[in-house]
Amino acid sequence: MPKYNELKKVRRLSDRSETNSIVDLVKDNETGILYVRKTIFGVDQPVYQGIFIRELQALQRLNSCENIVKIIGYSNMIMTKSRDKVGCIFLEYVSGDTLSNIDVVRLTSKQKFKIVKQLLSSIEMAHNEGIIHRDVNPNNIMIDDNEDVKVIDFGICKIKQMINSATVFQMRTSLYSAPEVHLHSQNATEQSDLYSIGAVMYYLFTGEQPPIATIFQETIDNASGFDIELRPIIRKLVASNPIERYKNISELRGDLTSVFKRFLDVHFTAVITMDHEKFTKLKNLNLIPKNSTIKDLDLIVSRNYMELYIGQLDNIYKFLGTNYCLECFYGEDTNVFLVAEIKKVVPVEREFIKRKFCEISARLNLPDPKTIHRLSRNDNLEIKNIVDEFCEHYRSKDNVNIEYKKNYGAWRDLLTLTKKSIEDNVQRFLYDSYDIKGNICSFKLHKGVFLGDTVFNKETRLIYERKNKKNNKTKLIYVGNYYDDSLVDEHVILKTRFLQKPLSLPSKGSICLDYGEEIINIDRQLDALDNMERENYSCQYNLKEIISGISPPTIDPLYGKIKFFNERLDSYQKAAVEKALRSESLTIIQGPPGTGKTNVVIEIIRQILKINSNYLGLPEKKILLVSQSHPAVDKMLDDLIQQSQHRPNLIRVGRDEKLNDEIREEFGLSYVKDNWIKNVRSKCNKLAQNYCEELRVTYTEFESYYREYEKKFVSNIEPESINENEILEFVSKTNTPKKEKIRKILEIQKQWVDGLQQCEEADLYLIKNTTIIAGTCTGFISNRVLRDTSFDYVIVDEAAKATYPELAVSFSKAEKIILVGDHKQLPPVLDLDIIEENEDKLDKKDFVEGLFEKLYNNFPEENRHRLSIQYRMHPVIGSLISRVFYENEIQNGTPEKERITGIPGYDNISIEWITTSKISEFKRKEEQIGDKEKATYKNSSEISIIKSKLYELDSLLTRIIKVGVITAYRGQKSAIKEMIKQQKFKYIQVEVDTVDAFQGGQKEIIIYSTVRSSKSNRIGFLKSEARLNVSLSRAQSLLIIVGDLNFLNNPKIIGNKFPEIIKYIKETKGCKITEVGENL
Fold first, then answer.
1. How far is CA 760 from its chain centroid?
2. N or C: which terminus of the chain has fewer CB atoms within 10 Å of its end residue's CB?
3. Would the CA dihedral through 563, 565, 571, 576 be positive or negative?
4. Positions in the chain short of pLDDT 70
5. 994-1003 burial: b if 16+ Cβ within 10 Å, else e
6. 744 CB contacts (<8 Å, ≥6 apart)?
7. Looking at the DSSP assignment, which residues form a beta bridge with residue 774?
8. CB neighbours (10 Å) of residue 276?
9. Would you say 562 and 534 are in contact if contact means Cβ atoms under 8 Å apart?
């Protein structure tokens, strides 16, 4: 946030009050935008810190309510002159005046009832969030220039879930405060706010200040200015006894329905019919009184529709009310809406739905279906046409859905086809019979059925598919893990080992490899796409419009300067952190190789944690940290742990076998849970032993008693096996009232402790109290608790490698999203076979540009950033990468002297190309492995050169050096790995892998095997700029390329980057080309 004096004060709006605060109108000199700054003094004192935190928390929770002033930002500050510690809250500037400054006598009845209606909406929203305003009065009700209500000043509000004795003191009360609040502010309840609403309504309609509570009802009886229907309502609102007031605003709305209909323009009458089944459902859902009759329906249901919003989708018309929604069909022949379904609606959900529905000024009429033809008024056709037009406009508004489907619609088709392909192509094994002995199930496979090339191990799960004839859905039943196989009398005997005996296994049928995890993963992504399409996400901004390119993402205009933890961050890295923290929705950070994106992510996390520590009274900002792969997540956590001064409050979710050992054993959810349970058990056992001492029994005696006592509640235990004498003996020792109470406590505690391991509430407790949750893009949601958990931030590392559906899984969970990656490195992995097999349904062009690249190319500068100084590579290597892949935009941050290998002959060399062009064509050419459809390649000449080069380097070294050997082809990788296994090196440690596995890694020396060499102009994977970028940018000090230089130096090959690379090597000092001949 800006410093106190960085915003120009325009004028004082409110002098210091009992909450020790002042309110100023201020102006941002750069933008000219006006804000309201509320300054609370003395926040180093618990009382005023509590006031500051309460107002902040209330405003943050209510920021989506249209009739409550919106918070822009907040900060703890030190005033420059006085050095006072203050808390500042920055609010939107509402152009208008408070109700207290408006001549209410001049307001029309319609204007007055509009104020009441909007006031009720705002206070109801607050109550549903557990917030009691405690100070509803005309001074805190703004009327803006559009005559809309904005409730302000939540400084002395009461938040139910927030316990803070600092603000339990008597606030100054007014004539608008309920009598119980006069006794003490902490007595305030929802009924206290209702009293204040009644007092405001009295002032609004009479122009007089309200009297004291003891004579309020009597004054109302004698006052003028009320409609006769309004008088008893206000009278009930201001009853001295809270019990005699309305229970809630919903009940109050019901009594105001007819008054609102009279004074707020009602242009139409909507006719709805409901059969007896739906009427009964309303009663069963407790949405109408149980004693209601069908004749009461019109009056009762109309109370739910004091304001009416109607939406339409697939010819279903949804009538949104206060507490429930009626989903109706429209009957063209009868011109009547018929209720098809009833759904309960909670207030927060209602506020969200309202934005998409058409507000109609209409009264509802629910007549007896038999008398419809006698109705004097039925405006259903007009209402239908208005709603249809609105919904059509909304759905086509700015072409959001059209643009969204154009950009991302194909992903649903691809996922659906992928799911079908998995189900159709899984390898199935027919069996003639099976036999179970112990926990081993032996399947006798059908004659001629073999296991084929499938690799089986003890982790391989097998299942039986059972189809439900009613809904045609398939249920996957686990039959065990692979145990053994053998051939007996021409039949394969496949053995599985199980923990629980498989149920309903037919005598003969088929089993298959378990594909359930793949299907679940796809279903999660399909659900995520549904959430995006329905705009069902935590982000308060329209994320769908942002990613469709319709609306730009926005930034916090008042986010101030940052004090960085890592002072070594360069200016580009600092700017990236600032942009991420200023963003109000989505930020893209591009991190080219070696530019320190991990340091940026860690700095962002630490800044968020700093906000948490600065505002301890506010709910912690929770962070979801995800990446496309488990190793990437663990690498990020390793770095975070190393750079953190204290142990991070984090949990790593994911299957234990896929996690880094150190991370798993300290932060894995199951390990954290086990340690927590162990700690809880230890404390409970200590407490139990103290109780046992009071009972004058040993803890061992209690445990022995409890074992027998517990058997009584187990269904399959024979009564004879229970030692009743032991139970009776223990009970007799503890039969006094006090001792019996202690015994019951011990029993309950023991039962609770024993059930902790299976208790899902334990997961809920741990996750709720953890700041950082880390996992993979789609894997984190496998935890049931996390499916319903929302986060303040989602940070996605390696985001350019993730597909849009993978990213969408986490998108719905967060208020703010930060994507970190590099679209010029490895792209998302796609199943090209499925795309090519379904050319009539899928267009490959729809999947070429990933979401990260699309957003980076279209976002404004304020919401995207490229890191532009690399620290990994020798400047000669770094400049190559910058020129070929990044338009010469990447600078070098590490001097040459820090990237010298010290290997004789390489003192001034950092790039070497060993070319095979002089070797005979027969020897240097590539070799195809496998059929054309799934072909891979290897190159024996290059393998020999790599072997010789490794021995040469090893002989010249005097220290350990890590060498990476990279290739684009699986066939070459396997051949090089096999060769390395047979060698012994003294100083070099060699790692061999494909390009895809090396992203994010680095070695002091990299050897890159190009493999391809032939008479054709085909270079396959080598045309991929992203893969080539990754391959060449892994080297810190020395990059050695092995391949046919003349073959690859062919500019006629479309997309070939090698001519540019070769030109650089030939022209640049620090590079050399080495030719090898027939003898290698």
1. 20
2. C
3. negative
4. 1-5, 80-81, 160-173, 185, 348, 352, 395-399, 932-933, 999, 1078-1080
5. bbebbbbbbb
6. none
7. 625, 652
8. 8
9. no
Amino acid at 872: R
Residue whose C-alpha is closest to residue 601's, from 804, 887, 797, 413: 797
Q: Which amino acid is at 687?
A: L
The residue among 979, 955, 954 whose CA lies nearest residue 967 is 979
**Do the Cβ atoms of 538 and 491 come closer than 8 Å?**
no
> With contact defined as beta carbons under 8 Å apart, do 514 and 482 qualify?
no
* CA–CA distances in Å: residue 566 to residues 570, 575, 645, 757, 975: 10, 13, 12, 40, 44
The tokens for 250 are 């919903």
Maximum separation of any 2 CA atoms in the chain, in Å: 116
428-478 pLDDT tens trace: 999 999 999 989 999 999 999 988 877 788 889 999 998 887 777 888 999
Please answer whether residues 888 and 878 qualify as being in contact, where contact means their C-beta atoms are separated by less than 8 angstroms. no
Tokens describing residue 958: 């005097």
Helix%, strand%, coil% for the chain, nearest 5: 45, 20, 35
Residue 317 · residue 393 · CB < 8 Å? no
Residue 368, classed as helix, strand or coil, is coil
- CA 212-218-224 angle, to 5 degrees, is 100
- Edge-to-edge strand order for the sheet containing 268-273? 358-360, 308-313, 316-320, 324-331, 336-344, 268-273, 362-365
- Going across the sheet that includes 814-821, the strands are 650-652, 772-776, 623-627, 791-797, 814-821, 586-590, 864-866
Tokens for 552, please give them.
């730009």
| pLDDT per position as a tens digit, 496-508 | 998 888 777 899 9
User: What residue type is 682 in one-letter code?
Assistant: S
Residue that is written with structure tokens 């703890």 in the block: 76
The domains located in the chain, with CATH, are: 1-93 (3.30.200.20), 100-150+172-265 (1.10.510.10), 266-377 (3.30.2310), 426-513 (2.40.30.10), 524-649+771-866 (3.40.50.300), 673-762 (no CATH), 871-1075 (3.40.50.300)
Q: Are 203 and 209 in contact (CB under 8 A)?
A: yes
Evaluate whether 576 touches 867 at the Cβ level (below 8 Å). Answer: yes
